[in-house]
Each structure stands twice: as C-alpha cells, then as structure tokens.
Amino acid sequence: MEQTKIQWTDDTWNPFHGCHKVSEGCKYCYMYRDKERYGKDPNVVMKSKTGFYAPLKWKEPRLIFTCSWSDWFIEEADQWRDELWEIIKSTPHHTYQILTKRPERIKQCLPADWGQGYDNVWLGVSVENNKNLDRCMILGEIPAKVKFISAEPLLGELPGLNEIFSKFKFDWCIIGGESGNSTGKYLYRECKLEWIVDIIKTCKEKNVKVFVKQTGTFLKKQLNLKDSHGGKIEEWPEELKIREFPDKKTSSTLSTVVSNDEPKVKSKSLSKELSGATLNTGSKANRTVTSEKSSLDLAKEIKKIETEETFHKVTYVYEYVPTINKNPMNTSVSIIINNK
Ligand code: SF4
Asked: I need a labelling partner for 129 at 20 to 30 A (CA). Which of 36, 57, 101, 213 fits?
C-alpha cells in the first residue's frame, strides 16, 4: 500500500503492475514513463512481490484506488483474480475504487457471489473523450454499489454524458486535465475550461457527485497557476471549485480518533463531537472521551479553525492556548469513519 497524491483517494494498491495501451488516454501513461525510467518493460504484467497482500495489513479504513500501475481487469491478472477478490472480501473496512478501460471484461471477471455488488467496491470506467463513452454503457448494465466515471485525461468535450446519465445510474464523476511536459516523449494535451465546466453542469443536472481533480498542464499555463498539475483548488476559477464524494450508502459509525497532539484540546463542542469515541494519543494509552469536564481545565481558550472532510475521515483543526505556557498552538483531531 502506498500513500498517494491522488486527491480522490487515500491510498493506491498495486497487487500487480504492467499494462498495454488501449486508447488515446493511454498515450502518455505515467506507468510507461516510470517503468522506462527504471529500465523495465511496461508491457510485462507482473505480480507485486511486496504489495500483493498490502490491504490486509491496514487496520484503519481506507479509500483505496486499485491498480494505478495497471488495469484491474487486464487478462494477465486472471490467474490472481480469485485471491484478489478474497482480499477485498476479507477487508470490509476498506473501500476499493476499481477503475478500468476494459469494461468488456468486467462481467467474466466478477466473483460468483458478486450479486448486486460488494458493499466495499466501487466500479468505474475511465473515459477521455466522447468516442469512449461506450465504456459507460457497458458499466451501466453491470450491478455495483457505487458506479463512477473518471474523465481524465480529458481530451475533448463529452456531449454524450447527458444521455448516459439519463439511461443509467452513476454516482460519481472525476474530472482532470492531462499532466505532462512541453517537450520530449511524455507531453500534455489540450483541455479546455469549458469542457470541464460543461461536465460539472451535466453532473449537477443529473444529481451525480463531481470531483474536479486537476486542470492539467495546458490550463495550468493558460490560467497562470502555480501548481505544476493545476491541482490546487484554491487557485482555480470559482466554477471549477467542486470536490464531492458519492453519498455514503449506509450509516456511519465513529471508530477511532487519531490525534497528533495531546488530547487536551477539548472544548465543550469538541467533547460533544467526540463523546464516546476513543482518542489514540500515540505513545500514551488510549483514552475515551466521556465528559466535557476533563478537558476544560487544560486549555484556557480554544477555537475551531477548520474542518476537512474526506470519505473516511473528518479532521478538526483547533487553536488553543494552554494554561501553562499560554502560547497559542494548533492541533488536529481526525475522526475515522467506518462506512458500514
Ligand atoms: S489502461 Fe491505464 S495503466 Fe494501462 S496503459 Fe492505459 S493508462 Fe496506462
């Protein structure tokens, strides 16, 4: 399992790597770039020696993007497929995002007990242009608890998306322009602002949650953004600023609270939010928040600065003034949500 910079997930899991290009979106595939850099053949699909069983080791719930260096449904992986589904089944606390450019292989590769879909699996197709919207038609017919589209690298407008959303239920759409260099082998291609804005509008009209990941290098240059991939939401024009996740299908329960500081920053409101949850304070023994009283005498002044929410985690950032040295300090407390 690897920590990832992909904004719409917590971690990537690459139980195997290597792939073959299937369409225009693959032209400047970063897996090819990285494998070639290390002198490896990107076309050879290999089981990972270190990462195959990685999710089994993760105790806290994670949103996991599978196969950022391959395609989950690639033929060569059929030999490992039963074992891969078993790993997913035996880790129901994780949520797996399976994204493919090979939807025609999904049906034959699903496990026998798939039914209406596993609760912890989202199925998605990658669509770079209108021509490849056919992939959504195939996924539209297959049962899954959450279905999504990744329009990245977006290489053209998607006028057919409206019809897709009218015919089939999709829950989520990710949008991103292509990252790349101006010269050399791995380039970027054009992505127009209006293409992204149109997709956002269609999603809104059809009640599909939408997540704009990055503008890509073309728009980064055009809009004069600082981030090299155009991935910083605060730099964007207002009409792009949207990062939603699919609705949680079931009720959430608090499982663990991880604090990166002493658990002494509990105001009335924080205690209320965390009441009954467990504070994991690193080297110290876990403590359960039972009342407001225990904390109020530890901090003189406390105020919430911000709240950040991802699919599995809510993080509260507080500023507080300790009674001892009176220097204002920040701390953050994350509540990890078990989505079961
Ligand atoms: S399907 Fe994905 S991993 Fe495979 S070549 Fe295309 S972009 Fe690369």
From this structure: 36
Preceding omega of 143 cis (within 30 degrees of 0): no
Indicate which residue's Cα is closest to atom 7 of ligand 1: 26
Considering the domain architecture, whether residues 218 and 316 belong to the same structural domain is answered as no
Please identify, by atom number, the ligand 1 atom nearest to the C-alpha of residue 102.
1
Question: How far is 29 from 13, CA to CA, in rounded Å?
Answer: 17
Which residues approach ligand 1 with their CB closer than 6 A?
19, 21-22, 25-26, 29, 31, 70-71, 101
Domain around 234? 2-240
The whole-model pTM stands at 0.80
> Each residue's pLDDT tens digit in the chain (340 positions)?
445 678 899 899 999 999 999 999 999 999 999 999 999 999 999 999 999 999 999 988 899 999 999 999 999 999 999 999 999 999 999 999 999 999 999 999 999 999 999 999 999 999 999 999 999 999 999 999 999 999 999 999 999 999 999 999 999 999 999 999 999 999 999 999 999 999 999 999 999 999 999 999 999 999 999 999 999 999 999 999 999 999 864 333 333 344 444 333 333 344 444 444 443 333 333 334 333 333 433 444 556 667 777 777 777 666 666 555 566 766 666 666 654 4
To test the ligand 1 pocket, which listed residue (20, 24, 27, 31) has its Cβ within 8 A of the most ligand atoms? 31
233 and 157 in a single domain? The answer is: yes
CA torsion through residues 293, 295, 298, 302, sign: negative
95 by DSSP, 3-state: which?
Answer: strand
